[in-house]
Protein backbone atom coordinates (compact mmCIF):
# COMPACT_ATOMS: atom_id res chain seq x y z
CA UNK A 1 0.00 0.00 0.00
CA UNK A 2 2.81 2.40 0.85
CA UNK A 3 4.41 1.77 -2.53
CA UNK A 4 1.12 2.42 -4.35
CA UNK A 5 0.52 5.72 -2.55
CA UNK A 6 4.00 6.96 -3.31
CA UNK A 7 3.65 6.11 -7.01
CA UNK A 8 0.28 7.85 -7.26
CA UNK A 9 1.16 11.13 -5.57
CA UNK A 10 4.96 11.38 -5.48
CA UNK A 11 6.57 14.62 -6.78
CA UNK A 12 8.36 12.47 -9.36
CA UNK A 13 5.03 12.30 -11.22
CA UNK A 14 5.33 15.97 -12.07
CA UNK A 15 4.13 17.68 -8.90
CA UNK A 16 7.06 19.43 -7.32
CA UNK A 17 7.64 19.35 -3.58
CA UNK A 18 8.52 23.05 -3.79
CA UNK A 19 5.34 24.63 -5.24
CA UNK A 20 6.49 28.25 -4.87
CA UNK A 21 9.66 27.62 -6.93
CA UNK A 22 7.83 25.65 -9.59
CA UNK A 23 5.13 28.28 -10.03
CA UNK A 24 7.64 31.10 -10.29
CA UNK A 25 9.76 29.14 -12.74
CA UNK A 26 6.94 28.14 -15.11
CA UNK A 27 4.75 31.25 -14.86
CA UNK A 28 1.70 29.03 -14.42
CA UNK A 29 -1.81 30.47 -14.87
CA UNK A 30 -4.21 30.96 -11.97
CA UNK A 31 -6.09 27.77 -12.87
CA UNK A 32 -2.86 25.77 -13.14
CA UNK A 33 -1.72 27.07 -9.77
CA UNK A 34 -5.04 25.98 -8.22
CA UNK A 35 -4.68 22.44 -9.58
CA UNK A 36 -1.07 22.29 -8.46
CA UNK A 37 -1.97 23.43 -4.95
CA UNK A 38 -4.64 20.72 -4.63
CA UNK A 39 -2.14 18.08 -5.74
CA UNK A 40 0.41 19.38 -3.29
CA UNK A 41 -2.15 19.29 -0.46
CA UNK A 42 -2.95 15.66 -1.27
CA UNK A 43 0.75 14.78 -1.39
CA UNK A 44 1.32 16.43 1.98
CA UNK A 45 -1.56 14.41 3.45
CA UNK A 46 -0.08 11.22 2.02
CA UNK A 47 3.27 12.01 3.63
CA UNK A 48 1.66 12.54 7.04
CA UNK A 49 -0.26 9.29 6.83
CA UNK A 50 2.79 7.31 5.75
CA UNK A 51 4.67 8.65 8.75
CA UNK A 52 1.76 7.61 10.94
CA UNK A 53 1.85 4.14 9.44
CA UNK A 54 5.54 3.78 10.15
CA UNK A 55 5.26 5.15 13.66
CA UNK A 56 2.28 3.15 14.84
CA UNK A 57 2.18 0.26 12.32
CA UNK A 58 -1.54 0.83 12.29
CA UNK A 59 -3.08 -0.46 9.10
CA UNK A 60 -6.49 0.21 10.59
CA UNK A 61 -5.69 3.92 10.58
CA UNK A 62 -5.20 3.85 6.81
CA UNK A 63 -8.41 1.93 6.21
CA UNK A 64 -10.50 4.23 8.41
CA UNK A 65 -9.01 7.66 7.79
CA UNK A 66 -7.55 7.66 4.27
CA UNK A 67 -10.91 7.62 2.39
CA UNK A 68 -12.24 10.42 4.58
CA UNK A 69 -9.17 12.61 4.07
CA UNK A 70 -9.09 12.02 0.33
CA UNK A 71 -12.81 12.72 -0.06
CA UNK A 72 -12.54 15.91 1.99
CA UNK A 73 -9.62 17.22 -0.06
CA UNK A 74 -10.95 16.29 -3.48
CA UNK A 75 -14.59 17.29 -3.05
CA UNK A 76 -13.81 20.54 -1.27
CA UNK A 77 -11.44 21.45 -4.12
CA UNK A 78 -13.82 20.55 -6.96
CA UNK A 79 -16.05 23.66 -6.82
CA UNK A 80 -13.03 25.96 -6.84
CA UNK A 81 -11.49 24.16 -9.79
CA UNK A 82 -14.80 24.29 -11.65
CA UNK A 83 -15.07 28.02 -11.01
CA UNK A 84 -11.55 28.51 -12.31
CA UNK A 85 -12.34 26.98 -15.70
CA UNK A 86 -11.02 29.50 -18.24
CA UNK A 87 -13.54 31.80 -19.88
CA UNK A 88 -13.26 31.53 -23.66
CA UNK A 89 -13.84 34.75 -25.60
CA UNK A 90 -13.81 35.26 -29.36
CA UNK A 91 -14.12 38.73 -30.91
CA UNK A 92 -14.77 39.49 -34.58
CA UNK A 93 -13.81 42.58 -36.53
CA UNK A 94 -13.98 43.49 -40.18
CA UNK A 95 -10.30 44.46 -40.33
CA UNK A 96 -7.07 43.79 -38.44
CA UNK A 97 -7.18 46.39 -35.61
CA UNK A 98 -11.01 46.58 -35.25
CA UNK A 99 -11.21 44.12 -32.35
CA UNK A 100 -8.30 45.87 -30.65
CA UNK A 101 -10.17 49.17 -30.49
CA UNK A 102 -13.39 47.71 -29.12
CA UNK A 103 -12.09 45.01 -26.78
CA UNK A 104 -8.31 45.28 -26.47
CA UNK A 105 -8.61 46.33 -22.84
CA UNK A 106 -10.75 43.45 -21.62
CA UNK A 107 -8.70 41.03 -23.76
CA UNK A 108 -5.62 42.09 -21.80
CA UNK A 109 -7.51 41.63 -18.52
CA UNK A 110 -8.69 38.14 -19.47
CA UNK A 111 -5.20 37.12 -20.60
CA UNK A 112 -3.63 38.34 -17.36
CA UNK A 113 -5.96 35.99 -15.44
CA UNK A 114 -5.21 32.99 -17.65
CA UNK A 115 -8.43 33.03 -19.68
CA UNK A 116 -8.53 32.40 -23.44
CA UNK A 117 -9.13 35.16 -26.00
CA UNK A 118 -9.04 35.09 -29.78
CA UNK A 119 -9.45 38.02 -32.19
CA UNK A 120 -10.59 37.29 -35.74
CA UNK A 121 -10.49 39.73 -38.65
CA UNK A 122 -12.93 38.73 -41.39
CA UNK A 123 -10.93 40.54 -44.09
CA UNK A 124 -7.21 40.70 -44.72
CA UNK A 125 -7.11 44.51 -44.78
CA UNK A 126 -5.65 44.69 -48.30
CA UNK A 127 -7.38 48.02 -49.13
CA UNK A 128 -6.72 50.09 -46.00
CA UNK A 129 -3.76 52.25 -46.95
CA UNK A 130 -3.00 55.31 -49.06
CA UNK A 131 0.04 53.90 -50.88
CA UNK A 132 0.26 50.14 -50.30
CA UNK A 133 -2.33 47.62 -51.49
CA UNK A 134 -3.03 44.01 -52.38
CA UNK A 135 -0.97 41.08 -51.12
CA UNK A 136 1.86 43.32 -49.94
CA UNK A 137 -0.47 45.22 -47.62
CA UNK A 138 -2.36 42.07 -46.54
CA UNK A 139 0.91 40.43 -45.51
CA UNK A 140 1.95 43.51 -43.57
CA UNK A 141 -1.36 43.79 -41.74
CA UNK A 142 -1.41 40.10 -40.88
CA UNK A 143 2.04 40.48 -39.31
CA UNK A 144 0.86 43.56 -37.37
CA UNK A 145 -2.13 41.63 -36.04
CA UNK A 146 0.07 38.74 -34.94
CA UNK A 147 2.36 41.15 -33.12
CA UNK A 148 -0.59 42.91 -31.48
CA UNK A 149 -1.88 39.60 -30.15
CA UNK A 150 1.56 38.61 -28.93
CA UNK A 151 1.90 41.83 -26.95
CA UNK A 152 -1.04 41.02 -24.68
CA UNK A 153 -0.96 37.23 -24.88
CA UNK A 154 -3.94 36.32 -27.08
CA UNK A 155 -4.49 34.59 -30.43
CA UNK A 156 -5.13 36.68 -33.53
CA UNK A 157 -6.34 35.26 -36.86
CA UNK A 158 -6.80 37.14 -40.13
CA UNK A 159 -9.07 35.52 -42.72
CA UNK A 160 -8.34 35.93 -46.41
CA UNK A 161 -11.46 37.82 -47.55
CA UNK A 162 -10.82 41.08 -49.43
CA UNK A 163 -11.06 44.40 -47.61
CA UNK A 164 -13.94 46.59 -48.80
CA UNK A 165 -15.65 43.66 -50.50
CA UNK A 166 -17.07 41.72 -47.55
CA UNK A 167 -20.61 40.43 -48.09
CA UNK A 168 -22.90 38.40 -45.77
CA UNK A 169 -22.66 35.26 -47.89
CA UNK A 170 -23.29 31.69 -46.78
CA UNK A 171 -19.61 30.90 -47.27
CA UNK A 172 -18.43 33.61 -44.86
CA UNK A 173 -21.22 32.81 -42.40
CA UNK A 174 -19.91 29.26 -42.26
CA UNK A 175 -16.41 30.62 -41.61
CA UNK A 176 -17.80 32.50 -38.62
CA UNK A 177 -19.75 29.47 -37.33
CA UNK A 178 -16.60 27.35 -37.62
CA UNK A 179 -14.49 29.87 -35.72
CA UNK A 180 -16.99 30.11 -32.85
CA UNK A 181 -17.36 26.35 -32.57
CA UNK A 182 -13.68 25.54 -32.76
CA UNK A 183 -12.92 28.11 -30.08
CA UNK A 184 -15.72 26.67 -27.87
CA UNK A 185 -16.70 30.24 -27.08
CA UNK A 186 -18.48 31.37 -23.94
CA UNK A 187 -18.60 34.97 -25.20
CA UNK A 188 -18.75 36.25 -28.79
CA UNK A 189 -18.20 39.96 -29.54
CA UNK A 190 -18.92 41.77 -32.80
CA UNK A 191 -19.95 45.20 -34.13
CA UNK A 192 -23.59 46.18 -34.39
CA UNK A 193 -25.02 45.87 -37.92
CA UNK A 194 -25.30 49.66 -38.26
CA UNK A 195 -22.05 51.48 -39.00
CA UNK A 196 -20.43 53.86 -41.47
CA UNK A 197 -18.36 51.10 -43.11
CA UNK A 198 -20.05 48.28 -45.09
CA UNK A 199 -17.45 45.76 -43.91
CA UNK A 200 -18.28 46.63 -40.30
CA UNK A 201 -22.02 46.36 -40.94
CA UNK A 202 -21.73 42.99 -42.65
CA UNK A 203 -19.45 41.64 -39.93
CA UNK A 204 -22.26 42.41 -37.50
CA UNK A 205 -24.80 40.69 -39.77
CA UNK A 206 -22.59 37.63 -40.26
CA UNK A 207 -22.04 37.10 -36.53
CA UNK A 208 -25.71 37.77 -35.82
CA UNK A 209 -26.70 35.17 -38.43
CA UNK A 210 -24.29 32.66 -36.88
CA UNK A 211 -25.58 33.17 -33.35
CA UNK A 212 -28.16 30.40 -33.42
CA UNK A 213 -26.56 28.21 -36.08
CA UNK A 214 -23.55 27.43 -33.86
CA UNK A 215 -25.71 24.84 -32.04
CA UNK A 216 -27.30 23.26 -35.17
CA UNK A 217 -25.52 19.91 -35.84
CA UNK A 218 -26.44 19.59 -39.52
CA UNK A 219 -24.67 22.81 -40.49
CA UNK A 220 -20.87 23.00 -40.89
CA UNK A 221 -20.48 19.30 -39.99
CA UNK A 222 -16.67 19.51 -39.93
CA UNK A 223 -16.86 21.51 -36.66
CA UNK A 224 -18.79 19.93 -33.74
CA UNK A 225 -21.74 22.11 -32.66
CA UNK A 226 -21.76 23.86 -29.32
CA UNK A 227 -24.01 22.41 -26.64
CA UNK A 228 -25.50 25.81 -25.90
CA UNK A 229 -25.53 29.26 -27.40
CA UNK A 230 -22.79 31.60 -26.12
CA UNK A 231 -23.43 35.11 -24.86
CA UNK A 232 -23.23 37.49 -27.84
CA UNK A 233 -22.14 41.08 -27.25
CA UNK A 234 -21.82 44.23 -29.35
CA UNK A 235 -18.90 46.64 -29.13
CA UNK A 236 -19.79 50.21 -28.27
CA UNK A 237 -20.30 52.74 -31.07
CA UNK A 238 -21.54 56.29 -31.63
CA UNK A 239 -24.36 55.56 -34.10
CA UNK A 240 -27.93 56.39 -33.09
CA UNK A 241 -30.08 55.08 -35.96
CA UNK A 242 -32.14 52.96 -35.98
CA UNK A 243 -31.32 52.84 -32.24
CA UNK A 244 -28.37 53.95 -30.13
CA UNK A 245 -25.91 51.62 -28.43
CA UNK A 246 -27.04 50.44 -24.97
CA UNK A 247 -24.31 49.91 -22.39
CA UNK A 248 -25.22 46.71 -20.49
CA UNK A 249 -21.72 45.87 -19.27
CA UNK A 250 -19.03 48.50 -18.69
CA UNK A 251 -15.51 47.49 -17.68
CA UNK A 252 -12.80 49.76 -16.37
CA UNK A 253 -9.56 49.41 -18.36
CA UNK A 254 -7.53 51.97 -16.40
CA UNK A 255 -5.25 49.20 -15.12
CA UNK A 256 -4.50 47.89 -18.63
CA UNK A 257 -4.72 51.11 -20.63
CA UNK A 258 -0.99 51.14 -21.39
CA UNK A 259 -1.21 47.51 -22.52
CA UNK A 260 -4.02 48.42 -24.89
CA UNK A 261 -2.09 51.34 -26.36
CA UNK A 262 0.94 49.07 -26.76
CA UNK A 263 -1.27 46.61 -28.63
CA UNK A 264 -2.66 49.31 -30.94
CA UNK A 265 0.88 50.57 -31.49
CA UNK A 266 1.65 47.31 -33.33
CA UNK A 267 -0.73 48.38 -36.14
CA UNK A 268 1.72 50.91 -37.60
CA UNK A 269 0.10 50.95 -41.04
CA UNK A 270 -3.22 52.01 -39.52
CA UNK A 271 -2.68 54.30 -36.54
CA UNK A 272 0.41 56.12 -37.81
CA UNK A 273 -0.23 56.10 -41.56
CA UNK A 274 -3.67 55.27 -42.97
CA UNK A 275 -6.07 56.71 -40.36
CA UNK A 276 -4.10 59.97 -39.89
CA UNK A 277 -4.01 60.31 -43.69
CA UNK A 278 -7.81 59.92 -43.95
CA UNK A 279 -8.27 62.67 -41.35
CA UNK A 280 -5.66 64.99 -42.83
CA UNK A 281 -3.32 64.88 -39.82
CA UNK A 282 -0.54 62.66 -41.15
CA UNK A 283 1.95 65.49 -40.66
CA UNK A 284 1.15 65.52 -36.93
CA UNK A 285 2.32 61.95 -36.29
CA UNK A 286 5.58 62.03 -34.27
CA UNK A 287 8.62 60.18 -35.59
CA UNK A 288 9.89 59.11 -32.17
CA UNK A 289 8.33 55.74 -31.11
CA UNK A 290 7.72 56.82 -27.51
CA UNK A 291 6.11 60.09 -28.60
CA UNK A 292 3.97 58.18 -31.08
CA UNK A 293 2.44 56.13 -28.28
CA UNK A 294 1.65 59.27 -26.29
CA UNK A 295 0.04 60.75 -29.38
CA UNK A 296 -1.95 57.55 -29.99
CA UNK A 297 -3.20 57.49 -26.39
CA UNK A 298 -4.97 60.81 -27.05
CA UNK A 299 -6.73 59.54 -30.19
CA UNK A 300 -10.46 59.40 -29.26
CA UNK A 301 -11.07 55.89 -30.63
CA UNK A 302 -8.03 54.58 -28.80
CA UNK A 303 -8.52 56.48 -25.54
CA UNK A 304 -11.99 55.04 -24.89
CA UNK A 305 -12.87 57.75 -22.42
CA UNK A 306 -15.80 56.91 -20.20
CA UNK A 307 -19.01 58.20 -21.82
CA UNK A 308 -21.72 59.88 -19.69
CA UNK A 309 -24.37 57.44 -20.91
CA UNK A 310 -22.27 54.50 -19.65
CA UNK A 311 -22.05 55.74 -16.06
CA UNK A 312 -25.20 54.07 -14.75
CA UNK A 313 -24.06 50.63 -15.92
CA UNK A 314 -20.57 51.32 -14.55
CA UNK A 315 -21.86 52.34 -11.12
CA UNK A 316 -24.07 49.25 -10.99
CA UNK A 317 -20.99 47.04 -10.66
CA UNK A 318 -18.24 49.38 -9.48
CA UNK A 319 -20.19 51.43 -6.97
CA UNK A 320 -18.17 54.30 -5.48
CA UNK A 321 -15.11 53.20 -7.48
CA UNK A 322 -16.83 54.41 -10.65
CA UNK A 323 -16.16 58.05 -9.80
CA UNK A 324 -12.41 57.66 -10.37
CA UNK A 325 -12.53 55.56 -13.56
CA UNK A 326 -11.15 57.28 -16.68
CA UNK A 327 -11.02 54.64 -19.43
CA UNK A 328 -13.60 51.94 -20.08
CA UNK A 329 -14.95 49.52 -22.65
CA UNK A 330 -18.70 48.96 -22.93
CA UNK A 331 -20.76 46.15 -24.39
CA UNK A 332 -24.40 45.53 -25.25
CA UNK A 333 -25.92 42.08 -24.70
CA UNK A 334 -27.62 41.05 -27.95
CA UNK A 335 -31.01 39.38 -28.11
CA UNK A 336 -29.70 36.53 -30.24
CA UNK A 337 -27.53 34.55 -27.82
CA UNK A 338 -27.78 33.24 -24.28
CA UNK A 339 -29.20 35.84 -21.88
CA UNK A 340 -26.90 35.82 -18.84
CA UNK A 341 -28.02 36.38 -15.27
CA UNK A 342 -26.09 38.78 -13.05
CA UNK A 343 -24.33 35.80 -11.48
CA UNK A 344 -23.28 34.56 -14.93
CA UNK A 345 -22.06 38.02 -15.93
CA UNK A 346 -19.80 38.11 -12.88
CA UNK A 347 -18.46 34.65 -13.70
CA UNK A 348 -17.86 35.57 -17.34
CA UNK A 349 -16.26 38.89 -16.37
CA UNK A 350 -14.14 37.75 -13.39
CA UNK A 351 -12.33 41.10 -13.12
CA UNK A 352 -15.51 42.95 -12.09
CA UNK A 353 -15.54 43.92 -8.39
CA UNK A 354 -17.13 41.20 -6.28
CA UNK A 355 -19.04 43.71 -4.21
CA UNK A 356 -19.60 47.30 -5.23
CA UNK A 357 -19.36 49.75 -2.35
CA UNK A 358 -21.65 52.76 -2.48
Molecular structure report:
- The chain has 14 helices and 7 strands.
- The protein has helices spanning 2-9, 19-26, 30-56, 59-83, 98-112, 134-152, 170-183, 198-213, 257-265, 268-278, 289-297, 300-303, 311-318, 342-348, and strands at residues 88-93, 116-123, 155-161, 187-190, 231-235, 249-252, 328-333.
- It is an alpha/beta fold.
- The protein has 2 domains: 2-83; 88-348, Rossmann fold.
- Helices cover 50% and strands 11% of the residues.
- Helix 5 (98-112) crosses helix 9 and helix 7 crosses helix 8 (198-213).
- The protein has a 7-stranded mixed β-sheet, sandwiched between helices.
- The model is unreliable at 1-44 and 48-82 (pLDDT under 50).
Structure at a glance:
The chain is an alpha/beta fold and 358 residues long. It folds into 2 domains: 2-83; 88-348, 3-Layer(aba) Sandwich (Rossmann fold).
Q: Indicate the radius of gyration in whole angstroms.
A: 25 Å
User: What is the level-2 CATH architecture name of the largest domain?
Assistant: 3-Layer(aba) Sandwich
Instruction: Describe the global form.
Output: globular
Number of strands: 7
Question: Which key phrases capture this entry?
Answer:
disordered N terminus; 358 residues; 50% helix; 14 helices; single chain; globular; alpha/beta; 2 domains; 7-stranded mixed sheet
Topology of this structure?
Layout: H1 2-9, H2 19-26, H3 30-56, H4 59-83, E1 88-93, H5 98-112, E2 116-123, H6 134-152, E3 155-161, H7 170-183, E4 187-190, H8 198-213, E5 231-235, E6 249-252, H9 257-265, H10 268-278, H11 289-297, H12 300-303, H13 311-318, E7 328-333, H14 342-348
